[in-house]
Each structure stands twice: as C-alpha cells, then as structure tokens.
C-alpha cells in the first residue's frame, strides 16, 4: 500500500436528515440492521491497507460514535502500526454555516502536519459504497493529476442525490465544474465527496479556502483552483447511496433488500466490519411470517414482516404486520400493530393495536425512545 | 488477578468420540452450538462474567482450531492488560520429553509453573464441554464462607439416573463425606459437574505427591478427591440450579439445540446480564426471502432462507433454498439445503450440501441422523 | 465486588491550573513521567473490581484523553462484562459557572438511569491517591449511612489544598458542614471529592441540585441535604495530592521523588495502569550525570539532572543542568541550558545556552510546543 | 489478509542450548534482550509493521512462557478483527499421535490445515531468534516483481567467514543457482538469513511430497530448496542491509546488548517509524538515586540505581544498590546487585542476586561470565 492518511470527512451543514440527525451525527446512523454508516468508509480504508485514519466528529455528543469505532480494532486496523483517531473541532456557536469541513481540518492542522504520510484520501462518512483505495491511489499517481475526484454516473439525478454535487468533466475526464445537483437532468456525474491528493497540497488548499471565505468548503476551493491544478475524475462502479436526506436513507435500506444488489456491495474479499453486541440468534415463534426481510440478531418475531430491515434486539409481537419498514435496534412493536413505510428509531415502543401507515414516497418517522 | 485472586483452568482436551464425524477435525469444546456459539464459549464467557482474568485452556487432541480460537482472548473481553486466555497443550521440557496429559490432575500438574507465575490463592477447574451459565464468583464466595479446602459444583439428578454420574455423598450443610463414581446403588442425587475450586497451595502439594504415585490415574475424581476425603479435608458441595448439559452424543447435541426453541428452557441466551460471547461473523444479517416460510426457529446472522423452515436451528451461513423443507433439524455452519430437498430429524454437519430434491432423515425416527457428508441431489 | 457504577467526576470550574490547563483537561495531565492523572482513579476502580466506569469529559478537545483511556483495556477492564465510557456534555456558552458537575450528570441522566448497578462511586480525575473502593463500599453498606464521603486528615491545610473543600465532622464521623479551605487553620479534614451512595439517591440529588440553583454543584446539595440524610466521613490514609493549582501539580511530582513515598503509592498488589507508547529504554551518554530523578523511557541524556521528573522521549543535551524540574514528554533541552524549578510542557524546545531559573516557591512554566 | 495476502510462520522451537542456563526454563525466542524486549519481539514487530495480519508461531521446547507471551497478540497490535498471533505446538491428530516437529519443513507440513484455513497467496517463513528490523512487505514486492517461486533473505558476510553459513550462489540479478550449507570453499558471500517467501500453492505441493520421503531431514535448507533448484524454479536472493544478529551464545548475546551503547550501530530501537513492540511493564519510571553515577548506559523502566553503572545495559526491575559497581555488564530482568558488590564483564541472568560486597567477573576476561545463580555476599 502506498503511504496515505485516510480522512473520514464530516458531513456538511447543508446535509440534513430530518429527525434521525437530532440524535447522532449521520455517520453514526444505523444501517441495514447491524451497521453504522461509518463502517463503510473505514472498512474501505482498512481493506485498502490504510491504517492511519482520522474520523472528523461534528456532533455535540460523539459518545456513541466514539464507542462504536473505538481504536479501530473492529476494522482490523493494527493499533500499533496504525491509528484511528476521532478529531474534534470547536463548533462555532454563531451559525452553522461556519462549521465547514475546512474549519474542522484547520482546527486540527498541527496533527495533520505531523503525519508522515505522503497522500491523503478524503472520503465521506455519509455515503455507502465499496471502493479499493489502493487501486484508486495507484491510478491517481499513474495519471499524474494533482487531485483525483471519485464520481458515480447516474441516470437518476432528477429523483435521487439531492444536496449532492454534480461534476462536469471534459473528454479527458478533466475537471470543468462542480455544482449542487439541481435535479433537472437525469444523467449526471455525482461527486462522491472523495478526494485524493498529496497531504502537502491538501494543507495548502485548506489554508487557501479559509482565506477565500470563512464559510468556504473544500468543494469551493477545488472549484476556485481548477484552472491552476490538474484535477481529474475517476468513475466508480457498483452500488452507491448518498444519505443526504431522510428519503435517501429509507431508499438505501430498501434497495439492499434485493439480494443481487446486496451481494454486490458485500463480498467475501471486501469485509464490511462493524461492532458486535453479542446478541443471540433470532427467535421466530410459531405463527411468525417473514418475507423479503433482513433481520439482525437478538430479535424475537411472532408477527408478520415483509420487505423490511429489522435491527438488533427488536421484538415484533403477535398479530402485528410490518411492511416496508426500517425498525432500528431494541424497538418493540406490540400486538396487532400495523406499520407501513415507517422508520422506527432505536428504543422506541409502538403500543398494541396502533396503526401507522405512510406512503412509500413519504415514509414516516418514529423518534428514538418514543412511546406511541 | 487483583480482583478475586482466582485463576481458572479449563480442561478442553476431550476428543468427544461419541460425537462421531463432528470431532474428526475439531476437539469437542470447539464443536458449534446454538446457531453462532462454540461449546467452549460457555465456560469462557462464564469466567469473563465472573470477574476471572486469567484462564488456562488445556488442550490436547487436534487442537489447531481450538488453540487459535481460544487464544483470541478478545472474544470474551479477556484481552485487557493483565488478563488473558492461555492455551496450554502438552510440551517438551528440560527434564522430560513430549508427553500427553495422562489425566485431569496430570494436566494441571504439568502446568504448575504456569499457575505459579500468577500466584493465585484459588484455582478453579472447569470442563470445556458443558453448556450452562454459572457465576463462579458466587461459588468462590460460598467456598470462602465455608472455609473449605475444596468446593465441588454439583447438580441434583433424578435418583434413578444417579448411577450414571459421579455422586457426592454429603452430611449436613452439604459437606462432602464420600465420592462414588457411577455407584450401582446411589445414596445421594448430587452429581459432580466437574467444577472444582481448590486452595492452590494445598492442591499444589497434593499434585506434586500424586505425580510420583505409580498406581494413580492422575484424575481429580478418582485420585485427588479421595485423598482429600481420607485426609479429612473440608470439602463442600455447591448446588447449581439451572440448565446444565453435557452434549456427549449426537442425540444430546441435537436436543440441546432444540431446547433453545423451548420457551420454558432455563438456558436464556438473550439475557443481557449474562451474555455468552463468541467470535463475531463478518456477515450480513440473516435474509428471509420472498417465498420463505419460517416458523418456530432459531436462526443466526448470515443465514439465507428461501424455503420452509419449521422447528429448526440454523447456524451461521447455512442456507435453505427455494422449495426446500427443513424440519426438526439442526443445520450447522455453512450447511446448504438445495432447491426442493427435504431434511427431517437430522443434524447436518458443517459445510455439508444436501443436493437438489434429496430427501434426508424421517419423521418419528428413533434417533437423530447425523449428516456428515454431502448428499447428492436427484439425478446428480 | 458489590455492584457499583464508577464515575470519574469532571473538575469543577473553580479549579484552575494556570498554563497547562489550556491544552487539556486536568485529568489528562501528564504525571510522574509516564502517567496521566486519570490513571489513578480508573486503576483504583478497576483494581476494586468495578468495571462499569463513566469518565466525564469537560474539555473542548477530548482527543488525547479519548485516545489514552480507549475502551479501558489498559486498565484491565474487561470490555465485554465491563465498559469504560467517555461522557460528554454540551458546555454552556454563557458562562463557565454553569458548567457544573451536576449539569454534566443531568445531560447524561438517561444513561445513568439505564445502568443496572445499585451503587455509585464518584471519584475525581484530579486527585492522586490509592483507594480500595470495594472495602470502602463494604464499610459504607455496613455503616448504614446514606452517603459516605472520603476525606484526608492533614496538618498542612494552611499551605496546601487550596480550592479543596474541608469537612467538619462530629465525634461519630457524622457530617456537620463542608466549606472551601480557607487556609487559616493547618489541621483540617480535606474532602477528597469521593462519594458513595445508591444510584437511586444520586439521581435524586442531582435533580434536586438543579432545582436548588442552576449553578449548584454536588457539594452544595450534600450540604443542603445534610439534615435529612445520614452522611458520614471515612478517613483515607496514605499519599494524597490534589492537583487544584499549578503549585500543587509541581509539588506532587516533587514529593514522589522520595522513594519511600513513591513506594507507598505504587505497590505490587495495586497496579497503577497507563498507556504504553512502546518507547525504547533510556540512553545515558558518556558524561551524563543524574541524581534523585525519575526518568521515563525513550529519553537520551547527556547533561546533568537532579531532583527532577523526566517524561518520555525527552532529550537533554550535553553541558545542560536541569534541577528541580518537571520535563514533560518529547521536549528537547539544548546544550548548556540551565533550568531550575521549571515545568516544561510537552513537545517544547529550549534552545542552547538558555538559562531559565525560578524559585521553588514559584516554579516557572514553559508552554506546550513552545520554542524558547 | 485482505491487505497483502501473505501469512507468516515463525519457527520458534529452538532450544538454544548454547545459551546455557538462560534457556533452562524458556525457549530461545523468549530470552530477554535490550532492557525490555524479548528476542521474538523482533520478528513479530517486523510482521506487524509490514502489514502482516496473521502470524503462526511454531513452538516446541518448554513453551509455556513463550506460548502465553506470543499469544498476547495485542502487544504487537495483532489483536484486531481478522488478525492474530497463533501459537502452534505439535498436536495429536485423528490419524497420528503426538509427534515433535522433525525439521523446519515438517513444522510447516504439520500445520498445512492451519495455513489453508486462511488461504494465503504467499507464505513468509521466519526464524524466531534473530535480532533485526526488516520490512517484509518490500521483500514481497521484490518477490512479485521477479515473478519468483521463492525468495530468500540474504546478508553479505565477509568471504572468510562465509563457511560458517548457508551460502547462496547466484547468477546475475541475484537469481539463486546453488545452495551450499557451510561450504569449505565458499564461492559467494550471500548468507541465508532463514527468511523465505514462497508461493503457498507450490510450497504446499513440495511439502506434501517431502513428508513421504524417508531420507528427508524435512528441512528447508537441506531438502526443499535443493528440490526447487533441481526443478529449475525461480529462486531469488533478497539482499538485506542493516543490523542482523543471531544471538546463539552468551558472548554474542552480551555483544548484541552492548551494541545498543554504540552510537554507530545500525540497530536503532528509538526510530518511531519502526518500533519494536513488547509487553509493557506496570512499573514506575526508572529511578536514579541521590548518590548514583550513571554513564554510558542503556536502562529501562522499573530499574533502581543507587550505585555506579558504567557501560551497561539494565533490564526491567534490575537494581544496583548503594556503593555497588556494575561495569561492562548486562543485568537481566530483576537481577539485583547488592550494596558494595562489584560486577564486571558479566551477563547476570533473570532474578539473580549478587550479595553484598561480592565480586563477580573481571576486566579483560576472554569471555563473558554468565551468572545464572545467586552469588553469596561477603560473610553470608
């Protein structure tokens, strides 16, 4: 592996997942029953042989994230030769627009400066995809570019990838421009918020960005410097989800209930690591009926479940029907409940005989620890 | 060791030959159980939960998998500074060649140097192949309160079955007055669980004396305990209440798995206050497919069900394809039941493939069928 | 061990260690060359068999503390049956007086509530002593008291223990009152900020404290409730230092250069655990002269050192004289330097031929990463 | 394994009998070195720093301390998910009894099942008793670039000493054409370091064939390499530059320790980019007392010096009392030199006490004195 520092970027202030985000930062979101979003970028880095990783924390309460990632042992990061660090920054109290990624990096500049690695690989904590960064870095070095940007070509930019940036490239994959996705055109290159460059150039750019404006982000300075630098796009293939709003979160879970899609993201040679909670297997009681559903360990199921994602330690009692739902860990669904197109956050409790039905287009949300 | 001054030694050398093909490549303590566990997870998790930091695991037979597994102390949280699970196979010494362990007591005797290096006050001896949840710290408290020289874990068995066990005959207060191995006419119903707490200094003396005895079996039950009783030492029986099972045969292993479907069973693996820890599989959550029927089952992570599952326990990465039917059965790790196959009253071993349309086992059979080799599908 | 939750309390806003505290919270202070202050309370708890520990974090940048304590493995805390958690709280931006221990506990009340333990043992992160909490808890339970407070009897309250509370007790060791040490009298019972009570009562008290006043601390509510409750003192014996100001920090290091005192704090049956950095042994070059000094690993010493504490990886070059100093990790003392009664913070660099001499009464301080 | 697809096996079965009393209770790889290290820390730290996740340690002789030590994977950061140090002593199998390893190749052959369970592309074979810092990932890169079947680590030795080593005769580009064990008339100066990278699939075939050969020594140098050369396989020599020492004797062990006082030595244990990891002692920093004189010394944590130390290496918890003089000497773990005693040109073994006023060793002696037993003080 070439010598690179892995940086898991903080989510920008413009990304808002209504509801869920009140309780934790996006990268700590539970995903597909047993994962958290952070597991994807860190597993990608570790599998690529990158073992010095900085995770930038923006949430006011990083307790659960800190406990989840620990010192990186769960990601097979060697704690002696490698290092996984949580990077904190003083949040601006004036306004959220000042809390940019550039500010977070600047707050920790002396540490970035002290790292011995030649390159940085910056990848977000709020996107789900599989990527071998070792290959990507080699491609970057071979190309001779100053900066390489990873993008995903889509024909759904009109309905998906809100709040993402789109990338305009020339025929040589050279950078032309970067704009927030307008949703007008369907065919677009979605920027995956993933950058490769030298650590030297990275430090230079964040200092420049700050000078440009107090609220400029890394994307802004890339755009501003595009004339001076050789910036190129590299295309990503395979599953890609950007959790930039609530609907995107819901959809990403639902899409992966197609096992053909799931099996392309989770392959034997590319483990996606996560924290174990030592839950016991799932108990299906007589009378249970389950179809097209992923169930994490520790659940007790007596009702009917269809086309859903069930987190760890969830209880679904008899007579209940759960359809097109994401039920997060340790929630309890009482008897004869009907849930459709709902995301139930952790430790919530839905009482007997309750009926909560939303449409697929606008799924509902039940708050963490709520009792309804 | 700062915490309770007790070191545990787990006897995990058993081959478990009555488990037939299941123990061809692994020792009995490494046999899988309950979807995601191995049998040795039980004593090791019990140790971790009882505040024991240092555990020696005495292995012997075909131990490469067991050795690697038990040495991964992190599984049970026993990887912190001053903690550890240490695998102790027989070894060559300056004054002796490479010898197998000659008996339970000999296994400890050959590792006196290991135990001494931690200087424990108490030594806990456990068996590596029983399924149960037990707080050894409470047993130690009982041992200390009784000012005992040794305390032996016992379980009440029906008196008519007592002649199958090592029986402790006790006076008032459960002080042990006699030990009888498989007595023809049992006087008591307290069966030894093979769990002992000794004061290490005393046991050490007895072991050193026992090594030299030519006629000794070097066994705790047959040699050490009788010597202590003859010497009028204070031995107490510690009564254990709860689920305890020696899964020595295919039938009893199948039964123990099926007990997990019994709501009345005392073995509660879901209790968050006393978890059983095991190696975490890097796998997706279990997936129950579009046409699957799952009822009364115990299924773990990484399993894929497209067919029908009824009254069954499915281990990690096992798979039931479309139109296949699995009933009254245990599918061990990675076992695959292909399209349209039918498995009844069986225990399907690790990685075994039941081919398309094959029919295996039958309802109402006397004993459980062990399927240890691939079964060809129809027309294969 | 009885069932208790260990709480390492945050330092009160009234405790100020000039200089050093700008760079980290007090409990992350380097101590005696290789420790951090947090090592003492957490080792005490772990050795006592308490393995569910909450460390309250008040600093804005808990990165180094989080990395140091990790998940408690270094303290021999079993990560499965036990748990060491960093507890964060939203700092009040209005004024530091609102950032009380009570506020920190209230911010995390749901988690404290969910803990299954019957008792809490609260002990500070800014005091150095050895204590078997298992024995203490047994004594507490046997006494039948509602709350037990640990105190240290001293005849130096006039010169030491500034900012500490003093405890007035009746003949039965019953609580009479608690006041900030006035420094007028020499003979006093210094409260060691260590409490034992049931978790139930603890939660009750913090809720009451908040009602009493927005700025009240746990000590205030104890004082206010002393008529209603059976509160007793338990005397601590042995080494005790309270790092409540800069001089106290300096003195505590110096006192422990007396090996008789050090050997009473560090005993074989009561390990004080800390994080290892895998430094190599110390290299004493020809010409070095060292007396009455503790030296952590990784140093290279060619000069003269006397009555000092030298942290990890420090270099002291030839011709230099270091006397009565605390030199923290990775600092570099150039050639022919003279240092007396100075605390040199981490990664600092004192250039050749510099002379920095302070008096024993008012030791000097050289900032972290400073070059002078 | 995702990282470089190479698994390492460390041969750590050596008794090291030329180290005399030092290896009475521990195998050579567990012998202490350089104040705080054990010899085996070097290959294991090299593995960790080279991005190798899975390391098997083949032990045999008196391995309880070595087994427990090496199994504590956390020391080298090899305790993360999917990583581990696995101790592999000889074991009893379904089809064979308990046998010692008959040679270096046999030790690997007996653990083919272990290696197969990780399915590596490359196998790295190391010796557990050499002191050196080496990046095996660079060696692997060299192996891959050469499209080699095997790559052997070599070090240039003075040609007149070459007859003490296994010598690789090479053609251009360092391709190996011949291997000579201790040749009387060496043709080359490239000595084998006992470090091999093999393509596992090929090696596996060769080992399976070798097991059956009756006249084989089951040794890499004597059997496997010659077979590969005869078969015209692509074998390359990988030249290592830097410090490398086989500490086979008391004199060479003493020397290697003293090398740490040599500013010109290439063995830099302080380099933060390639640390050697070892068990952390829960001890105070070293304390140099009021009347101590310490000059030209290498001293670690937990040491207490009240007397005079000159040109010496002091291991963890060793102690030099007042008026004692320690010169040109290595004090191993916990060695104590009491008041007024004098030790010169010696290597004092673990825990040995030199009594008050005793005089041990002398300046200018031909060889280094090993002090393996307590020395009585004057008038004791």
In short:
The complex is a heterotetramer, with two copies of chain A (372 residues) and two copies of chain B (380 residues). Chain A is built from nine helices and 28 strands. With 372 residues, chain A is α/β, with parallel strands linked by helices.
SSE blueprint and pairings:
The complex is a heterotetramer, with 2 copies of chain A (372 residues) and 2 copies of chain B (380 residues).
Chain A: E1 4-9, E2 30-31, E3 35-36, H1 39-47, E4 52-57, H2 63-69, E5 83-88, H3 101-107, H4 109-114, E6 119-124, E7 127-129, H5 133-143, E8 147-154, E9 165-169, E10 175-180, E11 188-198, H6 199-212, H7 218-224, E12 231-236, E13 240-242, H8 246-255, H9 259-265, E14 282-284, E15 289-291, E16 293-295, E17 300-301, E18 304-306, E19 309-310, E20 315-316, E21 321-323, E22 326-327, E23 332-333, E24 338-340, E25 342-344, E26 349-350, E27 355-357, E28 364-366
Parallel strand pairs in A: 1-4, 1-6, 4-5, 8-12, 14-17, 15-18, 16-19, 17-20, 18-21, 19-22, 20-23, 21-24, 22-25, 23-26, 24-27, 25-28
Antiparallel strand pairs in A: 2-3, 6-11, 7-13, 8-11, 9-10
Chain B: E1 6-11, E2 32-33, E3 37-38, H1 41-49, E4 54-58, H2 64-71, E5 84-88, H3 104-109, H4 112-116, E6 122-127, E7 130-132, H5 136-145, E8 150-156, E9 166-170, E10 176-181, E11 190-199, H6 200-212, H7 220-230, E12 235-239, E13 244-246, H8 250-258, E14 286-288, E15 293-299, E16 304-305, E17 308-314, E18 319-320, E19 325-331, E20 336-337, E21 342-344, E22 346-348, E23 353-354, E24 359-360, E25 369-371
Describe it for me?
- The complex is a heterotetramer, with two copies of chain A (372 residues) and two copies of chain B (380 residues).
- In chain A, strand 4 (52-57), helix 2 (63-69) and strand 5 (83-88) form a beta-alpha-beta unit.
- Chain A has 372 residues and is α/β, with parallel strands linked by helices.
- Chain A is built from nine helices and 28 strands.
- Chain A has two domains: 4-265, Spore Coat Polysaccharide Biosynthesis Protein SpsA, Chain A; 283-366, UDP N-Acetylglucosamine Acyltransferase, domain 1 (3 Solenoid), CATH 2.160.10.10.
- The longest helix of chain A is centred in the middle third of the chain and has 14 residues, at 199-212.
- Helices cover 21% and strands 29% of the residues of chain A.
- Chain B has 380 residues and is α/β, with parallel strands linked by helices.
- Chain B has helices at 41-49, 64-71, 104-109, 112-116, 136-145, 200-212, 220-230, 250-258, and strands at 6-11, 32-33, 37-38, 54-58, 84-88, 122-127, 130-132, 150-156, 166-170, 176-181, 190-199, 235-239, 244-246, 286-288, 293-299, 304-305, 308-314, 319-320, 325-331, 336-337, 342-344, 346-348, 353-354, 359-360, 369-371.
- Chain B binds chain D through residues 24-25, 59-65, 67-68, 71-74, 79, 81-82, 84-94, 98-100, 111, 113-114, 117, 280, 282, and chain D through 24-25, 59-65, 67-68, 71-74, 79, 81-82, 84-94, 98-100, 111, 113-114, 117, 280, 282.
- Strand 14 (282-284) of chain A pairs antiparallel with strand 15 of chain B.
């Amino acid at each position: 592996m070439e010598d690179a520092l892995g940086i898991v970027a903080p989510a920008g202030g413009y990304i808002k997942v209504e509801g869920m985000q009140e309780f934790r930062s996006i990268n700590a979101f539970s995903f597909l029953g047993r994962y958290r979003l952070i597991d994807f970028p860190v597993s990608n880095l570790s599998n690529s042989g990158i073992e010095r990783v900085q995770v930038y924390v923006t949430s006011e309460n990083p307790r659960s994230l800190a406990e989840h990632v620990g010192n990186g042992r769960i990601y097979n990061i060697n704690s002696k030769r490698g290092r996984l660090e949580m990077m904190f920054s003083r949040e601006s109290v004036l306004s959220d627009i000042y809390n940019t990624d550039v500010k977070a990096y600047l707050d920790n500049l002396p540490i970035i400066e002290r790292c011995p690695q030649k390159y940085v690989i910056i990848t977000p904590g709020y996107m789900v995809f599989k990527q071998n960064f070792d290959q990507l870095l080699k491609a970057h070095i071979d190309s001779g570019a100053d900066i390489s940007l990873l993008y995903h070509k889509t024909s759904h930019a009109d309905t998906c990838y809100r709040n993402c940036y789109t990338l305009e490239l020339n025929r040589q994959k050279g950078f032309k421009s970067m704009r927030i996705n307008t949703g007008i055109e369907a065919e677009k290159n979605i920027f995956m918020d993933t950058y490769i460059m030298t650590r030297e150039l990275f430090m230079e750019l964040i200092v420049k960005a700050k000078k440009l404006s107090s609220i400029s982000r890394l994307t802004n300075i890339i755009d501003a410097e595009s004339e001076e630098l050789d910036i190129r796009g590299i295309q990503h293939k395979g599953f890609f989800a950007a959790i930039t709003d609530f609907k995107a979160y819901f959809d990403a879970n639902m899409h992966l209930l197609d096992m053909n899609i799931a099996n392309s993201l989770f392959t034997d040679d590319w483990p996606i690591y996560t924290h174990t909670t030592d839950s016991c297997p799932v108990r299906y009681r007589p009378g249970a009926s389950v179809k097209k559903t992923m169930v994490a360990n520790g659940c007790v199921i007596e009702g009917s479940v269809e086309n859903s994602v069930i987190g760890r330690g969830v209880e679904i009692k008899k007579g209940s029907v759960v359809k097109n739902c994401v039920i997060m860990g340790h929630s309890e669904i009482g008897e004869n409940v009907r849930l459709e197109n709902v995301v139930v956050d952790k430790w919530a409790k839905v009482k007997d005989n309750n009926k909560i039905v939303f449409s697929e287009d606008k799924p509902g949300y039940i708050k963490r620890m709520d009792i309804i | 060791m700062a915490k309770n001054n007790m070191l545990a030694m787990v006897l995990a050398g058993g081959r478990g030959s009555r488990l037939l093909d299941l123990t061809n490549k692994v020792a009995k303590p490494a046999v899988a159980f309950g979807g995601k566990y191995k049998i040795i997870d039980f004593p090791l998790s019990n140790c971790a939960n009882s505040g024991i930091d240092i555990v020696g695991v005495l292995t012997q037979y075909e131990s490469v998998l067991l050795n690697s597994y038990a040495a991964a102390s992190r599984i049970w949280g026993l990887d912190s500074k001053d903690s550890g699970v240490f695998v102790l196979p027989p070894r060559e010494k300056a004054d002796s060649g490479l010898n197998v362990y000659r008996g339970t007591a000999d296994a400890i005797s050959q590792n006196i140097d290991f135990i001494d290096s931690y200087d424990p006050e108490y030594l806990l001896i456990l068996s590596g192949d029983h399924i149960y949840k037990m707080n050894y710290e409470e047993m130690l408290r009982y041992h200390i309160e009784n000012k005992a020289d040794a305390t032996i874990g016992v379980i009440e068995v029906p008196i008519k079955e007592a002649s199958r066990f090592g029986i402790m005959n006790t006076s008032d207060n459960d002080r042990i007055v006699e030990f009888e191995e498989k007595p023809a006419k049992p006087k008591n119903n307290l069966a030894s669980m093979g769990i002992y707490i000794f004061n290490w200094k005393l046991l050490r003396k007895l072991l050193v004396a026992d090594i030299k005895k030519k006629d000794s079996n070097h066994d705790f039950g047959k040699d050490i305990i009788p010597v202590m009783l003859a010497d009028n030492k204070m031995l107490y029986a510690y009564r254990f209440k709860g689920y305890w099972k020696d899964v020595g045969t295919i039938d009893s292993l199948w039964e123990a798995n099926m007990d997990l479907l019994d709501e009345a069973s005392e073995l509660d693996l879901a209790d968050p206050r006393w978890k059983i820890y095991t190696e975490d599989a890097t796998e997706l959550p279990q997936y129950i497919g579009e046409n699957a029927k799952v009822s009364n089952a115990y299924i773990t992570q990484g399993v894929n069900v497209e067919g029908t599952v009824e009254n069954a326990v499915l281990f990690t990465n096992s798979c039931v394809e479309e139109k296949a039917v699995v009933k009254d059965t245990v599918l061990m790790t990675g076992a695959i039941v292909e399209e349209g196959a039918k498995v009844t009253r069986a225990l399907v071993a690790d990685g075994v493939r039941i081919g398309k349309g094959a029919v295996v086992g039958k309802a109402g059979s006397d004993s459980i069928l062990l399927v240890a080799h691939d079964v060809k599908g129809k027309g294969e």
